[in-house]
Amino acid sequence: MTFAERLAQAIQSSGSLVCVGLDPDPAKLPTDLQDDAASLYAFNRRIVDATADIAAAYKPQIAFYSALGAEDQLLASIRYIRERAPAALVILDAKRGDIGNTAEAYAREAFDRYAADAVTVNPYMGEDSVRPFLSRPDRGAILLCRTSNPGAKDFQDLLIDGLPLYRRVAQAADHWNHRDNLMLVVGATYPREMAELRQAHPDVPFLVPGIGAQGGDLEATLAAGLDAHGAGLLISSSRNIIYAGGGSPGAIRAAAAALRTAINRERARRASERALDGAALNGV
Q1: 3-state DSSP assignment of residue 233
Q2: What is the dihedral of CA 256, 259, 264, 270, to 10 degrees?
Q3: Contact in structure between 207 and 234 (CB atoms under 8 Å)
Q4: CB neighbours of 182 closer than 8 A, spacing ≥ 6?
Q5: Distance between CA atoms of 247 and 30, rounded to whole angstroms?
Q6: N or C: which end of the chain has fewer CB within 10 A?
Q7: CA atoms within a 13 Å half-sphere pointing along the CA-CB vector of 111
């Protein structure tokens, strides 16, 4: 299947727009796992077991593994996701950005070594730095566009011919997206900017960090970012899910389920409003 088909299948199979971040901080691991020689993998298994029927995607942040020399635990975690949640996407959060054969090597790392479905990419160096990540129709690139951090405004809001840089990134992405396998990172902490991007790019899916610990508002995010089909978003949450209840399986599941329920309730409400508006337009 193409990446676009995999994304649609992941959302449909899970009935969810939830993306669970796998960012295991050794200092925050549950006490019963801290003496495990493969503690990151053990914690990730717990998270996946608790959320396998809830998550549309999982997003491991590579730095939490490579900093500890624990890439083998990342590989094992991705294999476990494939076993327990085969329809879910695996997004390698690596924020790669380079040119030429280095970019190609980064793409092989993400797609061949880690077998990820998509990888986050920094587009600062331009099209040739992104192209290797878009060359496979079944794999995706997720470009940093309007990120959720406070410092995003330092560069992303700078005007270029009357439009902020993040809008120019999205415009360039439209031209690069020949295989329909590109997404944009758009933070929940900036709903006004997200609404502008959705209006200008109605069919491009967004990966949305910033809900939960960073303070993004879920209702405002859905109002700004849902596409015409009530989808078009993967809403990422890490700390609020994986450390819920001290990392207990029940609390992890409850936090993920609560986020899915809140999202789907708002999706259903907006779908009902669209149906009523359509009926009114048709004189029904």
Answers
A1: strand
A2: -160
A3: yes
A4: 134, 140, 141, 142, 143, 173, 176, 204
A5: 6
A6: C
A7: 22
- Whether 130 and 95 have beta carbons less than 8 Å apart is answered as no
By annotation, the residues acting in catalysis are 95
Domain 3-281 is in which class? Answer: alpha beta
Place 257 in a pLDDT band, splitting at 50, 70 and 90: very high
Q: Which candidate, 185, 23, 172, places its Cα nearest to that of 95?
A: 185
DSSP state of 31: G
User: How do the domains of the chain map onto residue ranges?
Assistant: 3-281
Task: Render the burial of 131-163: b for 16+ CB within 10 Å, e for the rest.
Answer: bbbbeeeebbbbbbbbbbeeebeeebeeeeeee
Q: d(Cα 255, Cα 29) in Å, to the nearest integer?
A: 17
Q: What is the pLDDT of residues 155-183, one digit of tens each?
A: 999 999 999 999 999 999 999 999 999 99
Q: 199: buried, middle or exposed (CB in 10 Å: 19+, 13-18, 0-12)?
A: exposed
| Residues in Cβ contact with 20 at an 8 Å cutoff, skipping those fewer than 6 apart | 47, 51, 54, 55, 57, 58, 59, 236, 237, 238, 241, 242, 256
- Hey, what amino acid is at 146? R
Helix (H, G, I), strand (E, B) or coil at 121: strand
